[in-house]
Amino acid sequence: MSKSWGVDIGGTTTVVGLLEDSLFTTRAVLPTNPNEPPEMLLQRIMDVIRANGSRPDSIGIGAAGFVDRHAGVLRRSPNLPLMNGFPLREILGRMAECIVIMENDCNAFAIGALHTGEIPQHGIHLVVTLGTGIGGSIISDGNIIYGEGAAGEFGHMTVKADGIECPCGNRGCWECYASARSLQRYFGSSGNGKIMEPKLLAESAREGDRKAIAAFRQFGEWVGIGLSNLAWCFNPSSILLGGGLSGTFDLFSRTAEVEYSDRCHSPWRVRVLPLCSEAGAHGAAVAGAGAQG
User: Fold this and answer.
1) What CATH number does the domain containing 144 carry?
2) Is 60 a domain residue?
3) At what angle do helices 210-234 and 180-187 cross, to 10 degrees?
4) What is the pTM of this model?
C-alpha cells in the first residue's frame, strides 16, 4: 500500500497528513513558529510521520512563499523569513529517506481541489487564497500553469503604486490591503488595546458591530480591486476563493462584487471552495504520490 505524506506549511499552522489508496487523513496540526530554525519544524514533522508507522514512500510539501520547485527551496517567504533559501526538500528527504517534492502552498491547495473534483477540468480557473497573505494558482484544463516556476503570486501584484511596503521588497502589494493583517488594521484595536483575530472580527460583524462591519467593507473593496485585475488579465471561467478568510465571504462579497463590476466587464464568477483545513496537505500528498512513478 502506497503511503504519501502531505505537509502544508503555512504562516500560522502546519498540517501533516497521510494519503493511502486515495484516502487522505490529517494526522497532526502543528504551530508554525516563524522565529524558530526550520530544522525544528522538520523534526516535529518527522516525529508525526514516525509515530504513524513505516517509512513513507513520498512526501509532498506545500509552503507559503516563492518556491523553487526544481531546487526544492523556499526562495523567499515574507511570512517565514528564516526559511528563505533553506533546502527543505533536501533535508527532509535525508531525514525521511524517501522522495520529497515541493509546491507553493496555493498550488498544493489547488491540486487537492482538482483531486476531489471541486475545480472543473476544462477552462481557465483561478484559485485565490485569502489568509495571512494572498496565494494564487492558474489552472488551464486541469493543469497548473507555472510559467518559469512561480506564476500565480497574485498577492504581490501592485494595487497601489505608492502603497505600503511589503516584506517581499515591493510596495503596494495586494496582500498589504486584502489579507488578515490588513483586515485587522482596518478595524484597529479593541477596547482593551488588543488586536482582534479575524475569526472574532467576523463574529462581531455578524452580531452587528458597526466597526467590524466597516472593516470588512473596506477589506472587500480591496478584494474586488485585485479580482478585477485578474479578470482583465485572464478572463477566467471562474475565480475560486480559499484560505481562512474565504469563510467570511458573506461579510465582504457584496462590496467586493460592486468594486469588481465598477472596474471590469467580466461577469462576477466568484465562488468559495468548500472550507477544508486539510486541502493543502492533501494536494501536497497527491503531488508526492505522482512523483513516485
Assistant:
1) 3.30.420.40
2) yes
3) 140
4) 0.88
